[in-house]
């Protein structure tokens, strides 16, 4: 539950005061329009009575007891005169004027008052709509900020753990070597473990740095033709170098008719993408891991898929895997430690190369497949 601070209370009070002030001004302007109308009507009525008395014509005004006569047009039709409903029925048409001009002036005043009411109502409604939009945007901004802060806290915790774990392993390994109590038969295995932990730490640091460069648009993509088979052979050999005793942990399945295939891409970006995909497969691919790099044709070029028989995921949640700091959706009890940046970085780099990276699974416990579609440029 979020704690209330002084600035939260101040913002809430200010918001309520703003709505109250807007409501008061809306009512004030509405009443001002009605008061202006009434004043104009009284002025018109007074001018009519004064004119009738001045001309000295007797009339039957049962309620007012005033004189009526021909009403000068220049008096009753002035633009600053507004009609008064109580006088209209008391002033008949005059034979010399044809139609009493007072009625037309009153109609103009009523029309003008009606337009002012519509204007005030429209402006007031627009003001409240704008206030509502501002409140919604502020609420969304605060919610996104809270979500970002929570993600950053989780990220810092994960990075701290990720750095501590390999460093602790490397330190223990070095202490064991210094003690001189390692049998010769175990030296190769332990050295491989140390190298794997060092590479894990290096890869994590590179991902953190790369994430910052991508966010600030400082990472440049340089597209060039790449010999696909030679590059993948080097990558599989590099990963297998640290898998002592697990020769089948990662394998390359080539399903293209030709061995000489070139794709358009950035070599460094491709290395980062496939490394992150294979790391993800090793984390969630089960024990012992069985990772398959499958290469097969696609209408848009060539597909490199990284497949594992591990925990899988709900198919509807595939896109959420590429959000930062998201790990093993629906498997909170089986989440491996990590920064949660590998898949978002891979998706971003693929997009900037003009490639497509997607995730698929048949369901929880049925494995995962991450497919990278690259453009083939020749054979």
Keywords:
379 residues, alpha+beta, Helix Hairpins, Heat Shock Protein 90, 3 domains, 7-stranded mixed beta sheet, 7 helices, 7 strands, 55% helix
What does this structure look like?
- By secondary structure, this protein is of the alpha+beta class.
- It folds into 3 domains: 6-146, no CATH class; 155-215, Helix Hairpins, CATH 1.10.287; 224-378, Heat Shock Protein 90 (2-Layer Sandwich), CATH 3.30.565.10.
- 55% of the residues lie in helices and 12% in strands.
- It has 7 helices and 7 strands; from the N terminus they run H-H-H-H-E-H-E-E-H-E-E-H-E-E.
- The protein has helices at 6-55, 73-76, 101-179, 184-215, 228-240, 267-284, 342-352; strands at 224-227, 250-254, 262-265, 291-298, 301-308, 356-360, 368-378.
- Strands 1, 2, 3, 4, 5, 6 and 7 form a 7-stranded mixed β-sheet that branches.
- Helix 3 (101-179) runs antiparallel to helix 4, helix 4 crosses helix 7 (342-352) and helix 6 packs antiparallel against helix 7 (342-352).
- The protein starts with 5 loop residues before the first helix and ends with a strand.
**Into which percentage range does the β-strand content fall?**
5-15%
Summarize the main sheet. Answer: 7 strands, mixed
Structural class: alpha+beta
Spell the H/E element sequence. HHHHEHEEHEEHEE
CATH architecture of the largest domain: 2-Layer Sandwich
The CATH C-level name of the largest domain is Alpha Beta
The count of domains is 3
Helix percent band: 40-55%
Q: What name does the CATH topology of the largest domain carry? A: Heat Shock Protein 90
Q: Give the overall silhouette.
A: elongated
Distance between the termini: 60 Å
CATH superfamily of the largest domain: Histidine kinase-like ATPase, C-terminal domain
The average pLDDT is 76
Helical segment count: 7
């Amino acid at each position: 539950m979020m704690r209330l601070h002084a600035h939260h209370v101040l913002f809430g009070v200010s918001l309520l005061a703003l709505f109250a002030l807007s409501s008061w001004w809306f009512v004030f302007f509405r009443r001002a329009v009605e008061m202006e109308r009434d004043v104009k009507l009284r002025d018109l009525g007074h001018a009519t009575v004064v004119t009738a008395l001045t001309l000295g014509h007797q009339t039957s005004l049962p309620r007012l007891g005033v004189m009526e006569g021909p009403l000068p047009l220049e008096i009753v039709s002035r633009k600053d005169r507004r009609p008064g409903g109580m006088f209209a029925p008391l002033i008949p048409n005059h034979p010399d004027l044809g139609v009493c001009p007072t009625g037309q002036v009153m109609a103009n005043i009523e029309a003008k008052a009606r337009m002012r009411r519509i204007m005030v109502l429209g402006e007031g409604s627009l003001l409240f709509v704008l206030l509502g939009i501002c409140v919604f945007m502020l609420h969304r901004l605060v919610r996104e900020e809270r979500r970002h802060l929570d993600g950053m806290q989780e990220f810092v915790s994960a990075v701290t753990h990720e750095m501590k774990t390999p460093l602790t392993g490397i330190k223990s390994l070095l202490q064991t070597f210094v003690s001189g109590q390692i049998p010769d038969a175990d030296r190769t295995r332990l050295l491989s473990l140390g190298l794997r932990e060092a590479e894990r730490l290096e890869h994590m640091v590179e991902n953190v740095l790369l994430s910052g460069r991508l966010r600030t648009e400082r990472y440049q993509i340089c597209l060039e033709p790449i010999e696909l088979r030679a590059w993948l052979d080097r990558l599989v050999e590099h990963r297998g170098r640290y898998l002592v005793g697990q020769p089948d942990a990662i394998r390359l399945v080539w399903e293209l008719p030709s061995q000489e295939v070139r794709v358009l891409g950035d070599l460094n970006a491709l290395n980062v993408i496939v490394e992150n995909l294979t790391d993800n497969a090793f984390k969630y691919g089960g024990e012992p891991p069985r990772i398959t790099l499958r290469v097969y044709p696609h209408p848009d070029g060539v597909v490199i898929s990284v497949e594992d028989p591990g925990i899988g995921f709900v198919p509807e949640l595939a896109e959420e895997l590429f959000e930062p700091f998201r790990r093993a959706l629906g498997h909170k009890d089986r989440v491996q430690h990590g920064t949660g940046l590998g898949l978002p970085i891979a998706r971003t780099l693929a997009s900037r190369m003009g490639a497509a990276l997607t995730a698929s699974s048949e369901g929880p416990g049925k494995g995962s497949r991450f497919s990278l579609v690259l453009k083939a440029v020749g054979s």
